[in-house]
Amino acid sequence: LIAGESGTGKELVARALHTLSHRAKGPFVAVNCGALPDTLLESELFGHTAGAFTDARRDRPGRFALAEGGTLFLDEIGDISPALQMRLLRVLEDRTYTPLGSARSYKADVRIVAATHRDLAKLVEEGAFRRDLFYRINVVKLTLPRLAARKEDIPLLVEHFLERFNRLKGKKIQGLSPGALAVFMRHDWPGNVRELENAMEHAFILCPGGLIQPHHLPEHLRPDLKAGPPLTGLTLEEIEKRALWEALERHQWRTMATARELGIDNNTLRRKIKRFGLAPPPGGKT
């Protein structure tokens, strides 16, 4: 069971679990349980036979059948109805399922990974989620924190999206400039990983090549740039000046801590501060 706010990357984790498992050669099948009404979700999960309901003109396999030998990812499992919770519980306990309109049961050889943004334990206490189903899916629980609470993951996620969008869009973007990365590290990311992915896609559209610069980022990320020394160009010197100022800000202008982060000695840092004419804001430390 993967728990976390919307956009924290629950499906990314589910795919990683699949890729690193002995089922990696099998299919990974995802279904959003909160996006479909009960009648459609039941058919989507278990399949149906021809004539099972109006417009069911032919047999159709469900997601359990499509995930045979692999992993079935049930996203937003906290949104399914009590009736469907009962049917899903039986499938998990018996490891068999019956398509709608069929009298035959089929064995299910799938690994179930479920996810939710809701507090299932609270829903159990309120009677909105079956206690027995909760215990069945809550064997191993992973809780994903908000992206703002794990900012050390941002560079890794950026690399992931760089590789993905370079492949999809046929570009050769090298990465983020120090200034763009600093913007990412300062932002609170209320939309979590999904917001980061959208920001990267936006930057890919605007960036012709080389490094993604701050002005390639979405507008809602850029107002903070006014707080620092203005970017008057895209030269390496200007990028260094911006990165230096942002590192000093992160460490409240403590030069020893800033020098350690940048991998330079304190005297070198002081010379660069003087050369670029940088000064702390009112109340900042020196």
From TrEMBL:
Cited CDD domains: AAA
Origin superkingdom: Bacteria
UniProt KW ATP-binding keyword: yes
Sigma-54 factor interaction domain residues: 1-205
Keyword annotations: ATP-binding, DNA-binding, Nucleotide-binding, Transcription, Transcription regulation
Record flagged with keyword GTP-binding: no
Record-linked Pfam families: AAA_lid_14, HTH_8, Sigma54_activat
GO molecular function ontology, one term from the record: sequence-specific DNA binding
Residue runs in coiled coils: none
Record GO biological process: regulation of DNA-templated transcription
PANTHER family referenced in this protein's UniProt entry, alphabetically: TRANSCRIPTIONAL REGULATORY PROTEIN
Protein name, per record: AAA family ATPase
Organism annotation: Desulfobacca acetoxidans
Taxonomic placement: Bacteria, Pseudomonadati, Thermodesulfobacteriota, Desulfobaccia, Desulfobaccales
